[in-house]
Specification:
Blueprint: E1 7-11, E2 14-17, E3 25-31, E4 35-41, E5 44-49, E6 54-59, E7 64-69, E8 74-79, E9 85-89, E10 92-96, E11 103-107, E12 116-123, E13 129-135, E14 143-148, E15 154-161, E16 164-169, E17 175-180, E18 185-192, E19 197-206, E20 214-220, E21 226-231, E22 235-239, E23 245-250, E24 256-262, E25 268-273, E26 286-290
Antiparallel strand pairs: 1-2, 1-23, 3-26, 4-5, 5-6, 6-7, 8-9, 9-10, 10-11, 12-13, 13-14, 14-15, 16-17, 17-18, 18-19, 20-21, 21-22, 22-23, 24-25, 25-26
């Protein structure tokens, strides 16, 4: 493993030194129990503290931070085009009003599965909210990936999941990349815009034995390269769609959970981290940023209500 902060590129199994200035820096003051699901929206970075039961917002320009108490574990957060945020957690899908702090339940498709909770999620280019569940008892294939359509109807789109994690759509919206962590692989699906259905599921590439840790959250850049956080592995790695590892950025803490592009021209990479049970790492749980990647993210997709639909 390289020293914390060192970047490397890989080619045909060979590890090559690359730009040493690509060092993750701690940003903001909040320290999460378990940070996850960062998303950039209107010059703010939103993310969740799952075990702290909070949604956080961070303005890196002003250094301002805000937090909302949710009262339960919350696995993911996405912006709503009409205002507010959608979240998914212990009680399923909900709407969070930022001003009043009111939380409006929208539906829980797994009420009958108390050992499951919602985990990572994102909105598709056509404005739907996808979020998946995780088996807290680590029971194989007892979780699922769900879709909330713009009319608030919730559908199961993929079963047989164990630990639903990163999602990312290509720039043209035609392909969804998806991580079910224990598979140690990135799956790909053809995405049908207009219906939100998935077709032609396949393994895009495996990460098993190639990168330390397990694949967790994921972001995509404007060139359709995938940036994946490796929990228990102290790193974020960048892959092309064929699975070649192009870059690796190593962190000073083990539990690296999820990346998101943000900042000016979406040129910065923000990364959440978590604290292990017996934490002895000073910077575990902190929010990090990496500047100067030479990569640019794609604009965040928000949940889009149907015309005339009120909440």
């Amino acid at each position: 493993m390289l020293p914390p902060g060192e970047s490397c590129s890989t080619e045909e199994g060979r590890v090559l030194r690359a730009r040493g200035d690509l060092r993750p820096e701690v940003t903001g003051n909040y320290r999460a129990h378990w940070g996850e699901a960062p998303v950039w929206w209107q010059e703010w970075l939103y993310y969740v503290d799952i075990e702290g039961h909070r949604v956080l917002a961070y303005d890196p320009q002003a250094g301002e931070e805000k937090k909302w108490e949710i009262g339960e574990r919350v696995g993911t957060v996405v912006p709503r085009q009409g205002g507010g945020l959608l979240i998914a957690g212990d009680s399923g899908f909900s709407l969070l009003d930022l001003a009043s702090r009111a939380i409006t339940p929208l539906g829980d498709p797994e009420k009958d599965r108390p050992d499951n909770r919602f985990n990572d999620g994102k909105c598709s280019p056509d404005g739907r909210f996808f979020a998946g569940t995780i088996s807290l008892q680590k029971r194989a294939r007892e979780a699922a990936l769900y879709r909330m359509d713009t009319d608030r109807r919730i559908s199961r789109v993929l079963g047989g999941v164990t630990n639903s994690n990163g999602l990312a759509w290509t720039a043209d919206g035609s392909t969804l990349f998806y991580i079910d962590t224990p598979r140690l692989a990135v799956q790909a699906f053809d995405y049908e815009s207009g219906t939100g259905t998935l077709h032609n599921g396949r393994t895009a590439f495996s990460t098993e034995g190639r990168v330390p840790g397990v694949p967790d959250g994921m972001a995509i850049d404007s060139e359709n390269r995938l940036w994946i956080a490796f929990c228990h592995g102290s790193c974020v790695s960048c892959f092309d769609q064929g699975g070649a590892e192009l870059h690796r950025i190593v962190f000073p803490c083990r539990e690296v959970t999820a990346p998101a592009f943000g900042g000016a021209e979406l040129g910065d990479l923000y990364i959440t981290t978590g604290q292990p049970a017996e934490n002895k790492e000073e910077e575990a749980g902190r929010l990090f940023v990496v500047h100067g990647l030479g990569a640019q993210g794609v604009p965040t997709h928000a949940f889009t209500d149907q015309i005339g639909q009120s909440w």
